[in-house]
Structures are given as structure tokens and as C-alpha cells.
Amino acid sequence: MEIFKFNTAVDMGIAAAEQGCEIIKKAIAERGEANVILATGASQFEMLKHLISIKGIDWSKVTAFHLDEYIGLSETHPASFRKYLKERFLLKVKSLKSFNFVNGTAVNILEECAKLDSLIKKNPIDVAFVGIGENGHLAFNDPPADFEIDKAYIVVNLDEDCRKQQLGEGWFKTLNDVPKQAISMSIRQIMKSKHIIVTVPDKRKALAVKNTLNQEVSNKFPASILRNHPSCALYLDSGSASMIK
Predict the structure, then answer these.
(1) Where are the beta strands (DSSP E) in 111-171?
(2) pLDDT digits 0-9 by tens, 102-149
(3) Which of 17, 20, 139, 168 shows its CA 20 to 30 Å from the CA of 38?
(4) pTM recorded for the entire structure
């Protein structure tokens, strides 16, 4: 794992986006297409903002996959990840080849997972843009995460620390409003990505970063598995890097 530290979240996001851009352009040059995973949340604000502003990406040759989504939350809700990605990415990159959203309000959630499984298996991922949660989760795989399940998308229960993070970031008015389940990309599917770019801003993530880097690779610290990936870059700002030397 490569680690990059920056003074601000803006500088961090710009650098992460620029690396991701080069990976996308190289995949298009070599294969005529690129497949990416996009995450949401506060950790992705600056990265996404800069990624869509970079010139030279032929978005008409890019297929995007959605990392996770709450179960039962309307797409119009302020916390909806579909809403987040449509407003911050898709509406600004109108030439995109396709975007495979996770529908957390599907009539049959297991069928939704199976549909996404089939799609992503046909489109090997060139680069995954992800973050790390305050509890060390990767996507919505809270500790103890399932490192063994081979399905690409799974139904997960959200622990209280995860739900408190969503409340603390201002996405919900009360803890009771935060859904208790989500559809999440699995750990093994994320790890199948050729490259992984992880952006982690803010001091509240400092302990999670420290555990990711210094604890044993364990499902108790889900993001620690990233240390086993052959091409993973971790981007930090001064706050998130404050507990590591």
C-alpha cells in the first residue's frame, strides 16, 4: 500500500482524482473501455469534484458501478447515495457509457443483488474509488466483516457506530432515522479491482486509519485487508494522518 499525506482535504482529493484519471485513460487506451467503482459520503466530495473537472477522459467509454446503498431509503431522501451520485457525478458527466446503481428500494432485494453480481462479473474493475468508515468499515462491511463471501453484492446489517457516523455527518435528523440494513459491495469484490484509491479526510477517521495500517489484517478491522492488495493507494489529510508516524 502506498500512503500519501496532504495538508488539506482539497489537496488530497485532487491528487487522488489525478491518479484515478491516469488509470482510467490507460485502460481506455489499452482496451477501449474502463470500468470504475464510485463511493459516496463526505470522504469523496473533493475527489469527485476534481475527477469530473479533469480534461481528457472519454467518459463515453466508462462504465461505473455504485458501491452501496441503504435498504428502504427513497432516492429523494437527502442521504440517498443514488441521489448523491446523480447530483455530484452523473448529471455532470452526461456522456457516461452507463452507471449501474444499487436500488435499495427494489421489490426484491436479493434479485437486485443478483442482477448487479451478473453485471459486474462481465465488467472487471479497473479502479475503485473508496473511503474508510470511522469504525474501519470498507463499503458498508462493518466489523466483523465477511472476508470470505464471494458474491459481489450482499445484504448487510449496519452497526451502531456506522449509523452514528451517518448521523454525525448530517445525513439524518435522528439515529432512529438511519436505516439498519444496506446493500453493499462485498470485500472480495472490492479486492478484485485492479487498482484501489482510498481517500480518507478528517481527524475523526484518524483511529480507523491507524488501525488499518498498524493492526493485524483482520475482519475486526475491515479496511486492513487493503494492505494485501497489489495496487492500493491511501490518500490522507493532516487530520486523518494525525495518529500515524
Answers:
(1) 127-130, 153-157
(2) 999 999 999 999 999 999 999 999 999 999 999 999 999 999 999 999
(3) 168
(4) 0.95
Under 8 Å between Cβ of 206 and 132: no
221: nearest Cα among 235, 210, 233, 236: 210
Taking Cα atoms as reference points, which of 84, 70, 78, 29 lies closest to residue 184? 70
Q: What does the alpha-carbon distance between residue 139 and residue 141 come to, in Å, rounded to a whole number?
A: 6
* Digit-coded pLDDT (tens) for 188-201: 999 999 999 999 99
Q: How far apart are CA 180 and CA 95, in angstroms?
A: 35
Evaluate the CA torsion angle 69, 71, 74, 77 in order and state its sign: negative
Q: Is 1 helix (H, G, I), strand (E, B) or coil?
A: coil
Could you tell me the strand order of the sheet in which 98-100 lies?
Answer: 2-5, 232-236, 195-200, 127-130, 34-38, 62-66, 98-100
Which residue type, as a one-letter code, is found at position 143? P
Q: For the chain, how long is the longest CA-to-CA vector?
A: 48
| 163 contacts: CB under 8 Å, gap ≥ 6 | 175, 178, 180
Alpha helices, DSSP H only, in 32-108? 45-51, 81-88
126 burial level (CB within 10 Å; 0-12, 13-18, 19+): buried
- Map residue 235 onto helix, strand or coil: strand
- In degrees rounded to 5, what are phi and psi of residue 193? -60, 140
Q: How far apart are CA 28 and CA 222, in angstroms?
A: 31
> Is there a contact between 151 and 112 (Cβ–Cβ < 8 Å)?
no
As a whole number of angstroms, the distance between CA 221 and CA 96 comes to 35
| CA gap 227, 242 in Å, rounded | 19
